[in-house]
C-alpha cells in the first residue's frame, strides 16, 4: 500500500488535463514511430520480389544490346490468382536518351517486350507467350525462367547515338496490373507491386 503525505498547510492542487496541443503532439510522435517501425521491417517469407542478378549494356555488331537476369518471387495472392485462371502480363522496357543540360533529355529509341503467363487447368500445365511465340511448361518455376532473363536484346543501332554526346538507358521490368480483370484492379494490395527500375550509362 502506498501512502501519500500532504503538508497540512499546503492545499491539494487539482488535476489539470494536458492541453490539446500537447496531446496532438504526442499522438503525432507515436504515429511517426509506428510508421518508421513498419518501414524497417523486412519482407516476410514468401513475399514477392524482383532480385536483380545482371543488368548491363553491350556493343555488339553495330548495335547496343542489353543483358538482363533476375530472380522473381511471386506473393501468395499472385499465385492464387494464377491458379484460378487469371493470366498475368509482364513488361520489360528500355528507353535510350541523349543527355541535354539545357532541356529535357532527348529520347532516341524505345523497345519493349510483353510476356503472358497463364495456367492451364485441364492439363495442369503453364503457358508462356511472347508475341506470336508460345510454349508450355510443367511447373510455374520453369515457366518463369524465360521471362526473368533477356540476352542480346537489341536496344538501338549505334550509329543513331550522336558522337561526342552522353547517353543513358532507362530500364524497367514490372507486372502489368492494368491487364488484370477490372474487378481485381479496384482493390489491389501491396502483393501486386512487382517491378524494378534502373538507369544505365552508355559507355
Automatic annotation (TrEMBL):
Source species, domain of life: Bacteria
Any Pfam family the entry gives: DUF4390
Protein name (database record): DUF4390 domain-containing protein
Biological classification of the source: Bacteria, Pseudomonadati, Pseudomonadota, Betaproteobacteria, Burkholderiales
Amino acid at each position: 500500500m502506498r501512502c501519500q503525505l500532504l503538508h497540512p498547510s499546503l492545499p491539494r492542487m487539482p488535476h489539470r488535463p494536458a492541453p490539446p496541443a500537447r496531446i496532438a503532439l504526442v499522438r503525432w510522435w507515436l504515429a511517426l514511430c509506428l510508421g518508421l517501425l513498419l518501414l524497417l521491417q523486412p519482407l516476410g517469407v514468401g513475399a514477392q520480389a524482383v532480385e536483380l542478378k545482371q543488368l548491363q549494356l553491350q556493343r555488339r555488331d553495330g548495335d547496343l544490346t542489353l543483358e538482363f537476369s533476375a530472380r522473381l518471387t511471386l506473393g501468395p495472392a499472385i499465385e492464387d490468382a494464377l491458379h484460378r485462371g487469371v493470366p498475368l502480363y509482364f513488361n520489360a522496357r528500355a528507353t535510350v536518351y541523349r543527355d541535354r543540360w539545357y532541356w529535357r533529355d532527348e529520347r532516341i529509341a524505345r523497345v519493349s517486350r510483353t510476356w503472358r503467363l497463364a495456367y492451364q487447368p485441364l492439363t495442369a500445365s503453364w503457358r508462356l507467350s511472347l508475341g506470336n511465340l508460345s510454349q508450355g511448361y510443367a511447373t510455374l518455376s520453369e515457366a518463369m525462367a524465360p521471362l526473368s532473363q533477356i540476352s542480346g536484346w537489341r536496344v538501338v543501332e549505334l550509329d543513331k547515338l550522336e558522337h561526342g554526346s552522353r547517353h543513358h538507358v532507362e530500364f524497367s521490368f514490372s507486372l502489368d496490373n492494368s491487364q488484370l480483370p477490372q474487378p481485381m484492379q479496384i482493390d489491389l494490395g501491396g502483393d501486386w507491386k512487382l517491378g524494378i527500375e534502373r538507369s544505365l550509362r552508355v559507355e
